[in-house]
Amino acid sequence: MQTPASDSDSHFSILPLASSSSQDQPLAVVYPIRHSLTRPISRIAISWARGNTLHVSLFSHHQHSGDGEEDAGGRVVEVKLSGAGNGGIDNDAQWRRIIYGSVTPFAVFQNRKNSALALTKLPAGALSDVEWWEYAMEYSREINSLLSTAKSTASSTVEDPRTILAVDEGPNSLKAAWELLEIFYADKQSQAWLPERLVDWLADYDGLFSDNQSKVYSKLVDLQKDLVYVQAIEDDPKYWDGLSSALAVGWLEIVVKLLRLHGSYQLDQLGRRETENGLVEAVVVLVSKMPRLRPELPAGRLGECYRNKTDFIKAWETWRARVTKLECSAFWFECGHQQTKEGLRTMLQIMLGNSEHLSARTYNWVELYIAHFLYIRPFTMGLESMYSLAQKCIHLKPLSHHNSLMGLLLGILGENTEVVLAECSKAFGPWMVTHAIELLTAGNDQSENLLREVHDNLGGVSIEELHRLVYAQVLASHQLTWQIAPVYLMSCMKLGMGLLEILLYRQPVHQKQGLLKTLEICRLYELESVSSNIVKIAGVHHWKHGRKGSGIFWLQQAQDEIRLNKIAQKLFDFVGKSISEESFKQWEGLVQLLGSDTRTAGGLEFLHKYRDFKKALQQVGDGKAKDAARRAVESLITLMKSPSTPQRFWLPLLYDSLKLLTWQEGPLLDVMQTNLLLNKLQELSMAKLRPDYVEPDLPPQALSSVRLALARNLGRAILEEQ
């Protein structure tokens, strides 16, 4: 890592790195850090953040400022590591678009697979009988469309005659790898013309091969830059090298366009260079008429297509005869431009399949491989012969260092599923492996047996399920993607359900939207018990953190009678106590939330009656509201008569009612009501003799005060009735 104190400062390294490296030890990747701190930096702390991001904490030295105060500072910056597994896609938003976009194709494909298995009652390998590859191809195309970006193609779409390549934002290696898998595993219709599919693939993705090594694409890019400044282009050796290289890999459109830039086509040169122009045009015609063993060509591509091998062989022999005839023509002696004569004859040798010229004009084994398909072995069929040819090309052009796309292609040609998975995992990450397995097993019994066989050393799961679990774990580790992890977990028959429950239990419950999302997932996958437990957890969490209303709400949703009863018991602690108006409102709200269903939380009927009594008692005030006092008396008598009123609350209720029992304007209770309350006091005196009796939290003189008040009220009531 390198860190500048400011934009104008020179870089200094956190760790000293060698400025040069050997071929075996590539240059270390340097990540610049901008922190705006005054150097020197005294301490650095590095820790992992989410994904492939580092938190780098930088602390500067203590320095004395001009006013005598110490100046110390620090910064925390994030450094994103561009490690392997991104497939050339560094934008997080684009990766999330791919991740979310691939969920639907994957889920639909799994549903079709399960439906086909249920209908046919056949093992998965027999699904080819119902044209399973069509489903796989549709799935592959949907995934492929998500990977599309603006790309540089071999065919030109720009009208400028000197523009041979439209150099835009390059394609990504993830899409290149996916298309390779699609060509060999999903697209069964193209099996008869696999070499031609590889020609198209190289035209799109040759630029992705090593930046440290020459390739046809880079040669043409350099040539295009020089075309602006070169007057007589046919005098430039780079022109003929680029032409020969483009021809060797089958980029015929570029070859024709470059040949048409030849100086002999200029109007003022036609009279003096007629033979030379005729030779150039003859090569243009031969290139344009080159036979291609394929059903059709995309718009703008050159060549003549043949669907069956018989017609192609006839056309191939005829075309080769014309190339040979031109190569032996006497017109070469009349051509006065040496570079043109040598360049055109080199191109003819390439079309005739001269291995030395093909090797000289290609720069890696894949390009040489394509050249052999086009000009030496156009009838190559079957992966075994294709793999043998690949080994020969690697021997002629050995790899200077490993390339993921080349390694993937070699694993496919060698029918080595383990190598294919290893390359996908190493270079493109768990997303690629999880979704590519569906292509590897499409009609391929060998791959299917390998990937879906249960292994004891993997915990009793298959390789397919293991990779899905790994990918689901990656999704579950990020707050923006955890919601789609259940789709992949539910496709894992062994461990998926258990891990899904663990994932759902670990989601935070303090935010309503997140909780509702978790409950929705439980509903989708019919996890009723998990949903009930999560709602209980949410209720307890809110209650413990002071959000008592929310806690009661979620516990009611879960029908948790045990905890609701415990909450109701806590509310009993307010009975008989002097509480503030604000506390009473909170207590009243909780009682209201709990409702009056005694089956759900026993004893709540008493709390509701006590709430009405307490509200009426608060309205009495200083003895001036007689109507409120009579309502309070009615509530008191109702409470004392009700069997739902616990005996331990009799004395607190009567003590709260002292103001009513000693009403100055006259007795509020008649003789019968007063006797009822006196009888309750008598029962309470007898209850004190029991060992389980609990003394209420009241003043010592509470009982005597209540008894005296009732006696006075009884006397006043008798006198008033007489």
UniProtKB/TrEMBL annotation:
It comes from the Eukaryota. One of its GO terms (biological process) is protein import into nucleus. InterPro entries: Nucleoporin_Nup85. It holds the Pfam family Nucleopor_Nup85. GO terms for molecular function: structural constituent of nuclear pore. Keywords: Membrane, mRNA transport, Nuclear pore complex, Nucleus, Protein transport, Translocation, Transport. One of its GO terms (cellular component) is nuclear pore outer ring. The keyword Membrane applies. The keyword Membrane applies. It is found in: Nucleus, Nuclear pore complex. Functions as a component of the nuclear pore complex (NPC). Component of the nuclear pore complex (NPC). Belongs to the nucleoporin Nup85 family. This is Nuclear pore complex protein Nup85. It comes from Opuntia streptacantha.
